[in-house]
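During data preparation, we tokenized the protein backbone, and the record follows.
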Amino acid sequence: MTAVHRGPVSRLTRRTLVRANGCGLSIRRFLLAVAAVASLGGVMDVAAVTPASAQSFTYNPLPPRAKPPKAVNDNQMLVQATEVDYDYNNSRVSAVGNVQLFYNGTSVEADKVIYDQKTKRLHAEGNIRMTDADGKITYAEILDLSDDYRDGFVDSLRVDTADQTRMAASRSDRSSGNYTVFENGVYTACAPCKDDPKKPPLWQVKGARIIHDQQEKMLYFETAQLEFFGVPIAYMPYFSTPDPTVKRKTGFLMPGFTSNTPFGYGVEVPFYWAIAPDMDATFNPRITSRQGVLFQAEFRQRLMDGAYQIRVYGIDQLDRSALAGQPGDKQFRGAVDTKGQFALNDKWVWGWDGVLMSDYYFFSDYRLSQYRDPLGSFLYLPTDALSQLYLTGVGNRSFFDARTMYWLSYSGNQNQVPVVYPVIDYSNVLNYPVFGGEFSYKTNFVNLSRDTAVFDPITTLANTNSLCTTVSADPLARTPSQCLLRGFPGTYTRLTAEAQWRKSFTDPFGEIWTPFAILRADAINSSVSNQPGVSNYLPVGDTQALRLMPTVGLEYRYPFINVQPWGSTTIEPIAQIIIRPNETYAGKLPNEDAQSMVFDASNLFSVDKFSGYDRVEGGGRANVGVQSTTQFDRGGAIKTLFGQSYQLFGMNSFAVQDSINTGVDSGLQRPRSDYVASAAYSPNSTYTFSVRSRMDEQTWNVQRFEAEGRANFNRWSVSMLYGNYAAQPELGYLTRREGILTSGSIKLAANWVVTGSARWDLEANKINQYVLGAGYVDDCFVLGLNYVTAYSYSAGSTPPVLNHAIMFQIGLRTLANTATTSSSGGGLQ
């Protein structure tokens, strides 16, 4: 480097601050050249760690510098240095000693910066650190650029970007204003080790040359090798990937592998097409060893107010014998799947889900990800595919939802699945008092139809539907000990409107009184087809009904509080009196949405204990109980509840058999209900224990019992649920059910986790479901291995099928993410 001529040079020392305005031609060119440094930051779309040698990554932070002044964004550049020299004879401007440059949000720090007007080159050296407006930091020892920013080189380069990707190289050259070539480059998306910065990162890619095409925003690796912890595991003569700034890029994605008995082994090589900023497409053909090529394609588009997507599938099967006797025994199989959702404004959205398949086992046979089983998203089991169109609105105190629904049945009995068109819900709570209390109302409208009746044999004798479809001489003769009518054939329409008022006040003695009043009306029209056996359960033909249920009631609570040095205990007796008429048309109308009935402590004080609108509780009833809460000063709490329900007068709705015996064997069918109890204990944030139980009112025999325990520590967690349920022959459960469900996870190291769960059927004395998994997760790498075993069930008398699935997943942040799945089913040979 030529020495600075000391003759006619004017020198500014003592950390002088120089502004661009009025500094003369040399300073102006100097400032323009310094802007080239900022330009280099704009093209370095990858990041690096210490570049001392490109053999592996280390991290050696620079010593702290003085805090730079606030960035200037008025096209002025600030230059701060120990001294700034002007060499007019050699047309050079030099800034020496802790040089700091600030221009339009970009700062450059170096030991020395020289601009040569004759060669039109900007040269910086010594501890160079450049930070652009986006937070990207470039480190180097030597930087040389032409003043048009097109050509230049950087020695000992290291770049850190805001997205935490890093690149190092022994030398970097930039040409044509577009290409940057990193010699002996190393690339990673992993942060350096805090304890040992010289330790190699978890993974890194080394290349003899790494070429960055700024225009295409691509990284090209030549003679590359992938290393884990500094150990090479894969060699690639050439590969390319979008640079880290790219979120969407046309090209091939990482391949995937899967296997299943019907199609053998499958390899997928997805191709992604970024059509426009608002739309894209993915083509994902799967080449199978047994059935040929399964075509898969997905199109997505995002609009101003929402987004939608369409998936299509199709295959011309080569080996139909693999599915002989199965629903998929056909030449062509395929499906169309679409989803969309759009916002009308900040409170209203509408959308759809749509599925159309050639046969109901298509997604299951080919293990398509959209319909994986929820047991861990790895085991593909048959499931219902829902098509729907919906409109939803949410206000501050109101809610509206309307939708039509159509299910594709996994069982193949499509004519037994109802079509809902539509179901509409609306609820609102007024934000002002009415007679001093809270007033709310809600409505529900449903219209559905089903072609064929759905019978469920509930005894070992009724192993076919022949007994269920036998027509009785008595048109209302029930056969509850033999069959249930799960779904009626015909059309059903119901409109429900309900208004409720309640108010709470506390008297001078601390007693809490809550009177309430409810008025509900149901307008029902049902048309039940006269199919064999249906008349044993429901009146066939057309039925119109108007069902009114006025209700008044009073709830009483009297809390007693005892404060001790160790904590406080609150004991609260609760009594509830409900007065209303009998349920009209009880058991004589279809029941589609109130089939589930579980009586426990959670709904002891519910005014109407039915789960849906098709049944409504009638008759006078009293619900009584006592609950206590103990809060310890050092943390922890115990909460208990014990109570019982009484039928005071009128007809007991839970003792009336309907088409599916809802309420029978629930514990509420007698004038004095079973006892219900619950207890929960949390000594601290680590442990949680709870029990729930229902005991027979006369014998105190346990009818339903659940005990659950959870523990969460720093490195491991475990949970266990024990369930014991008495036989309910009226509902089809002929024997007692007992089992244990366990799950747990252990953090073996900072990023290693092992998980597992199992379900043990104590009655059959076997484990019928378990999941085992292990994984590694950090900010730059994902590794997972999962094994799942569970039974899937088909319609009719087909025995359950034991399914196994193994999934292996690996992901390198910014580079690749791929998965391999292997599964088998005992019934799919």
